[in-house]
Amino acid sequence: MTVASKKQELRPDARARRVLLARDLPDFAERVAAYAGDLALPSGAGVAGYRALPEEADPVRLLKVLGTFGHEICYPRVGTKARPLSFHVPVAQEPWLIGAFGIPEPRPDWPRADPSILLVPLLAFDADGYRLGYGGGYYDRTLAQIRAQRTVTAIGVAFAGQEIPCIPREPNDQLLDMIVTEQGIRRFPER
Description:
By secondary structure, the chain is an alpha/beta fold.
């Protein structure tokens, strides 16, 4: 069995677990926002968030707090499968587009951004900082491209109950630098 097929086998259970966690933690967004200051992000750093799917760990309130700290908030736009994500700053009063996966995403004509912090959605994570994504590789490609040029911090946003013992690993998997859950922040050791 390949690593990719092992990951694919984990996804249905991870999605089902996340539905239950979201139901049991309706105040997740408020709870995770309380840790914004503890992230200790560099002053003025650009932060890429994401628009949460139903039952996904929602960073909306965390992003609002980070915006009040002076961080420029931007969001990803999905291009083709072979390309990394592009990031754009929202324009007030302009409608978002609905992307290929049913996720609201920035319009292509909105200002481009070059964030140094990426908030990353996930289905599961482990104690070593590996994440189980959705299978498209968008965040892995994006993080790899940015890390080849400069430093970027990847912060997973998740329910604490999304942690599993071990995520199957492939050479192109990009590690998280930290994870923020309703229980706090965990920094992963230097690698």
